[in-house]
Design brief:
Two copies of one chain form a homodimer.
Chain A: H1 7-21, H2 27-33, H3 39-66, H4 70-84, H5 92-102, H6 107-112, H7 118-133, H8 136-141, H9 149-163, H10 173-196, H11 200-228
Helix pairs in contact in A: 1-11, 3-4, 3-5, 3-7, 3-11, 5-10, 7-11, 9-10
């Protein structure tokens, strides 16, 4: 087992995981942000990513169900407000549906998740199971990809606006909200992990949890890349399958 | 299997469960409300009931983690706000701690749950497991004891104020808040169960879920009664144990 790190060293190790494995480095995102995809491929991305979006509140509720810490629950609850909305027709999931609708996808088809790639589904479901079954520290640490998301969002919004005439600033409203929400959430979770990973084993588990999370984001893009980037191999039943 | 009931018949059957099994009929509550307990016994009740109070948000988060219905999650979220508070120092759990503190119990000892009767702990833990593992309909139906709580709360507040000189209106602030919250929650859950229990099997499961919930509230009072009502038999380690 490695030695106990200081909190600053642990943070450095966590940031190194992101630098190496966060999905901004995946080739699919290079194509997406660089204007190299056609409208159908962008649709496929938004449709599949909806599955991740709509399951996030269940993941966050699973985390809250595990903790006896009222303060942690109260802070974490804001994530449910952000995604499910303060009221009907609000929130991140609704904003994601704005994106898929603007891209020309049928709202009910998206919500049904019928066209989602099995590989994407398994990756997201693995995330929920991880948060439900592992230690609370690992559950919190797995959220730390938020540290890296403002950079990719800025890149994405600029790239997609510049490169696709079917994308407007309103289409991407989801991401503007996340630019404020993600750093707030990441700061809290990083502080939590720094304070609660107090043994080498716990520090190792926190790093492994973040690695796991990076892997599952990456796996979603692998599935998209394989299915929809030339020569795409769409699996039976998924969006765009020709039968 | 019994025949399909109308929604009104189902509601009637659910109300009949409460009329027969809700814990307002338990002898311990008769003693509590009638001024027949001493301060130590009232302390034991408040201390043990804290375990139920503090676990309720985990139960509600477990329910939210199970559903893909954003609307249901959004409405149910209010329960977490009610119990955990809109901000620090607020909410139902904090108000329950006001009660235990006013009764002369050490706040940290209460929060530690170290003195809780094992029988109470098992009953509450069984509730959380039920909500996590059964169908969503059963999870919602198990909350329907809220239908019956305003009556017992009114009786409790009046009885305790009249009968105990160590109880003030401020001590019982928890219950005043519940008089507004419980009917709102019960109306929503009852409407949900009426709409979603659409087969005889589902109706039977909903009735059984409410029966299960009544049983676990009752079991908590059985444990209290056995341990603290003359001749009380306090189990090892629990509040008031003399070793």
């Amino acid at each position: 087992m490695t030695a106990l790190m200081s909190a600053a060293e642990l943070e450095q190790a966590l940031r190194a995981v992101g630098a190496e494995r966060y999905h901004n480095r995946h080739p699919f995102h290079g194509l997406l942000h660089g204007g190299k995809l056609d409208r159908r491929q962008v649709q496929a991305w938004a449709l599949n990513r909806y599955y991740y979006q709509c399951r996030i509140p269940q993941k966050d509720a699973a985390l809250m169900a595990r903790t006896e810490d009222r303060e942690l629950r109260r802070v974490w609850r804001q994530r449910l407000v952000d995604h499910d909305g303060a009221g009907p027709g609000e929130g991140g999931i609704e904003r994601w549906l704005r994106l898929t609708t603007d891209l020309g996808l049928d709202r009910n088809y998206v919500i049904s998740t019928a066209g989602v790639l099995p590989g994407v589904r398994y990756a997201v479901d693995a995330y929920i199971a991880f948060v439900r079954d592992r230690t609370l520290l690992e559950a919190v640490a797995s959220s730390l990809t938020e540290i890296f998301s403002p950079a990719i969002i800025s890149e994405r919004v600029a790239g997609m606006l510049a490169n696709y005439d079917f994308i407007t600033r309103e289409t991407l409203a989801y991401f503007n909200a996340r630019l404020d929400q993600a750093p707030r959430d990441a700061d809290f979770a990083l502080d939590y992990v720094r304070r609660h990973a107090r043994t080498p084993e716990q520090q190792h588990a926190a790093i492994a949890a973040l690695t796991f999370k990076c892997d599952l984001l990456w796996a979603q893009l692998d599935a998209l890349h394989h299915a929809y980037v030339t020569p795409g191999q769409v699996p039976p039943g998924a969006f765009g399958w020709s039968g």
